[in-house]
């Protein structure tokens, strides 16, 4: 899969020629037997459901999805029985054309878009749909100025898809970093932990880190740390027989009395009472 930067570099070095832009209804229940798709093409699913099968890979159709084809893709499709599928579709040719130092380079597009073949989920579907609509409307007008605007609108469409890829990849990277800090908290529950320290580990601002942490876990970072510490304290109170001062240190509280207050605040009982209750036959 191309990342956003690689796609931008490829598109920057490419020249495009739109051969068709349309808005089509695929009727409910319709099946298209496999055939070889011979040209670059890009579809936007406006509404409806069904399946595209591209080189044996099945993709579910849903509103807001973008489907990308490259030449020599074996393609078949099936539309659900309940409703039609509406699509925007653009067919195009492309050629690599760019300047390398002092020399111009001209070469076939090759398989530059092949890693994108298949389904892209649009993060901002309204923006992507607007770009498809603009290309479609401009392509129907054959004067040179409109055609030039159509070429620019097609470039804007690809720019929108680059932004979508970047958002998806950044979100994925952010989720991975937040999950890393969750594991770090579990492994260092006895240590002093601050939200600022955890955010710094991810390279995110404290506020943004806190919002993403809550989105993924359902808890603010401080509450998440407290819950883990008190759950660990419960285990130790039930099983270890350690002194309260030792348990408080093992779960990250140097002050035994502060630990006791936190424990009672969140469980409704003191640590000593909890230990007695858990050890009753």
According to CATH, what is the topology of the largest domain? Jelly Rolls
Order of helices and strands: HEEEEEEEEEEHHHHHHHH
- Main sheet: strands, sense, barrel: 6 strands, antiparallel
Strand content: 25-35%
Note the total helix count: 9
Q: Report the top-level CATH class of the largest domain.
A: Mainly Beta
Mean pLDDT: 89
CATH architecture descriptor text of the largest domain: Sandwich
Distance between the termini: 59 Å
What is the overall shape?
Answer: elongated
Count all strands and give the number: 10
Q: Provide the helix percentage.
A: 40-55%
Counted up, domains total: 2
Could you state the CATH homologous superfamily of the largest domain? Answer: Regulatory protein AraC
Radius of gyration: 28 Å
- Structural class label: alpha+beta
Low-confidence stretches: none
Word description of this protein:
This protein is α+β, with helices and mostly antiparallel strands and 281 residues long. The chain folds into 2 domains: 4-170, Jelly Rolls (Sandwich); 188-281, Homeodomain-like (Arc Repressor Mutant, subunit A, Orthogonal Bundle). 48% of the residues lie in helices and 27% in strands. It has 9 helices and 10 strands. It has helices at residues 4-12, 125-139, 144-187, 195-202, 206-217, 221-239, 244-250, 256-267, 271-279, and strands at 14-26, 31-37, 40-47, 50-54, 57-61, 65-69, 73-79, 85-100, 103-108, 118-121. Strands 1, 3, 6, 8, 9 and 10 form a 6-stranded antiparallel β-sheet that branches. Helix 1 (4-12) runs antiparallel to helix 3 (144-187). The longest helix has 44 residues, at 144-187. It is elongated. The model has no long low-confidence stretch (mean pLDDT 89). InterPro entries: AraC-bd (IPR003313), Homeodomain-like_sf (IPR009057), HTH-like (IPR037923), HTH_AraC (IPR018060), RmlC-like_jellyroll (IPR014710), Tscrpt_reg_AraC-type_HTH (IPR020449). Residues 179-277 form the HTH araC/xylS-type domain. This is AraC family transcriptional regulator.
């Amino acid at each position: 899969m191309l990342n956003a930067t690689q796609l931008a570099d490829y598109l920057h070095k490419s020249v495009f020629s739109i051969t068709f832009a349309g808005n089509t209804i695929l009727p409910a229940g319709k099946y298209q037997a496999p055939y070889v798709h011979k040209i670059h093409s890009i579809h936007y699913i406006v509404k409806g459901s069904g399946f595209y099968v591209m080189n044996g890979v099945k993709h579910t159709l849903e509103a807001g999805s973008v489907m990308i084809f490259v030449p020599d893709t074996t393609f078949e499709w099936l539309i659900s029985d309940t409703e039609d599928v509406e699509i925007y579709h653009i067919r195009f040719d492309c050629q690599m054309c760019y300047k390398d130092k002092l020399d111009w380079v001209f070469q076939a597009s090759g398989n530059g878009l092949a890693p994108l073949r298949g389904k892209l989920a649009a993060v901002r579907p309204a923006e992507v749909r607007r770009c498809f609509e603009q290309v479609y409307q401009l392509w129907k007008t054959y004067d040179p100025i409109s055609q030039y605007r159509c070429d620019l609108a097609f470039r804007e469409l690809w720019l929108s898809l680059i932004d979508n890829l970047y958002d998806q990849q950044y979100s994925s990277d952010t989720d991975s970093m937040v999950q890393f800090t969750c594991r770090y908290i579990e492994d260092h529950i006895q240590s002093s932990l601050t939200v600022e320290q955890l955010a710094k580990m991810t390279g995110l601002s404290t506020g943004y880190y806190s919002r993403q942490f809550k989105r993924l876990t359902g808890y603010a970072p401080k509450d998440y740390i407290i819950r883990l510490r008190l759950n660990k304290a419960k285990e130790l109170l039930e099983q270890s027989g350690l002194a309260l001062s030792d348990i408080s240190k093992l779960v990250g509280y140097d002050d035994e009395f502060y630990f006791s207050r936190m424990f009672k605040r969140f469980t409704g009982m003191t640590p000593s009472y909890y230990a007695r209750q858990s050890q009753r036959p």
